[in-house]
Amino acid sequence: MPPPRGRDTGGYVAGRPSPRSLGDMSLAAAVLQLDDRFARELPELCVPWQAEPAPEPTLLALNEPLAVELGLDPEALRTPEGVAVLLGNSVPPGATPVAQAYAGNQFGGYSPRLGDGRALLLGEVSDTAGRRRDVHLKGSGRTPFARGGDGKAAVGPMLREYVVSEAMHALGIPTTRSLAVVATGEEVMRERMLPGAVLVRVAASHLRVGTFQYAAATGGTDLVRRLADHALSRHHTDAAAADRPYEALLDAVVEAQARLVAAWMQVGFVHGVMNTDNTTISGETIDYGPCAFMDAFDPATVFSSIDHGGRYAFGNQPAVVQWNLTRFAETLLPLLADDADAAVEVAKERLGTFADRYNGHLAEGMRRKLGLADGREGDDQLIDDLLAMLHTQRVDMTSAFRSLSSVLRGDEAPARALFSDAAAFDRWCERWRARATAQELPPASLADGMDEVNPRYVPRNHQVEAALDAATEGDLEPFRRLVEVVSRPFEERPGLEEYAGPAPEGFGRYVTYC
Among 18, 37, 60, 240, who pairs with 232 as Cys (CB 3.0-4.6 Å)? Predict the structure, then answer.
């Protein structure tokens, strides 16, 4: 089913700037210059649309370092004209805001038409390094893909994405990023009336596995080819130059996703809603809905209120990503070979590399977390035994790995205190310390290296909720403080002890919502 085209909405035609809603376009151009390459090259995959006006916009958060990276002036973004641009209510010349179309497997079930129900791609900008980046809104109002929703978003969830995405960026994990959160001045109905907001996020692109699924279903081989060429030029230029570029594209996406999920698993991150429409071609983390970081290590951890069967549990994430990649490969089959059977064999071969790629990235990362500079026989067992011990004794993952550097500095107490069965920890620790200190580097140097990859601070669930509750009531200081803390995750700082530990026992089971 193709996306519907623009319609008259009482004052403007969707996608066409109206003088009433845009104000001075020269001011908009001075704030932000955008290109509409996606809308021009792939009109079948989007609907020109415009954000709903915000009655009383207030800038709640602006990511000034990211703005500078994008070549933007933070002070200009803070002006009323700048906020209007951020909200999509003032559209610079050359931009064509669109709601993107995509399909997706949601909890395994295929939905042929999803799309940006409450989001808009404002356009693309080239940052100071020459990289093309999407500028995208969430919570900007209903689109033709809204499927009965109100198209709006509340302050809390939008600030949540800001906190967690910036934490992921600081941890070195590929991610979309948050440029701004703007309160709209209106209320949205959820379980109760809440203040509304729009998130402005930045991504390498918003091309998803679901984008390819939609293209294959609605436009056939020709549209998939054009979309694949767009993805190659946008993300995987080395693959574009290969003898078999579409096979190389599949290979590149398999590698990017294997590396991404391995990074999640090293820090205890649970995405929570790993549908194919939330799996990017770029290999970035996208759509922070029911996500969270584990406290006590448990592969069965689920935070999402709707994941009743644990499909997207922490330990299932690698298998789910491989399943999603299989759906991606299915869309590329006509491009992989002229013969259908040969195309399937090519896809199976490339998909078959996922497990080794993922296991390799995970093992390398876990060795670094344990101060092991190279791989040796027995390392996998050493890692597995530690994780099993964290699980059976319900030990906080972040604290456990961070505390091990103190052992190499001669102080076992912080690590040992985390384990209810201290004797079991002592036995494991003796094996690990013998392995680590057998290397040529001095223990203190190994410990310093461990502190560079084992964070002291992650967005602890109780701290996130406290900050969002305060922000919903109008107090942004806890949110700002939390962002500052998680933006420097590896540097231990005095006075931040409350941000370093897991939730207190009275916090209860943590549940998140899309």
Answer: 240
Q: Are 74 and 259 in contact (CB under 8 A)?
A: no
pLDDT at 30: 79
Residue with tokens 């084992």: 454
Residue 330 near residue 308, CB atoms below 8 Å: no
First to last CA, the chain: 26
| pLDDT of the residue at 491 | 97
Q: Give yes or no for residue 143 having a pLDDT over 90.
A: yes
C-alpha dihedral, 277 to 198 to 45 to 324, nearest 10°? -10
Catalytic residues: 277
How far is 203 from 190, CA to CA, in rounded Å? 27
Buried/exposed code over 117-156 (b: 16+ C-beta within 10 A; e: otherwise): bbbbbbbbbeeeeeebbbbbbbbbbbbbbeeeeebbbbbb
| DSSP single-letter state for residue 2 | P
Dihedral over Cα of 150, 152, 154, 159: its sign: positive
Average pLDDT, the chain: 93
CB-CB neighbours of 395 under 10 Å: 23
| Backbone conformation region of residue 418, classed left if phi is above 0, alpha if psi is from -120 to 50, else beta | alpha
Q: Which residues contact 129 (CB under 8 A, 6 or more apart)?
A: 69
Closest by alpha carbon to 256, among 357, 167, 155? 357
Question: Among 424, 449, 423, which Cα is nearest to 436's?
Answer: 449
Tens-place pLDDT, residues 173-224? 999 999 999 999 999 998 899 999 999 999 999 999 999 999 999 999 999 9
Judge whether 119 and 176 are in contact, CB under 8 Å: no
Rg (CA), the chain: 24
| pLDDT band (50, 70, 90) for residue 2 | low
Among 256, 245, 253, residue whose Cα is nearest residue 336: 245
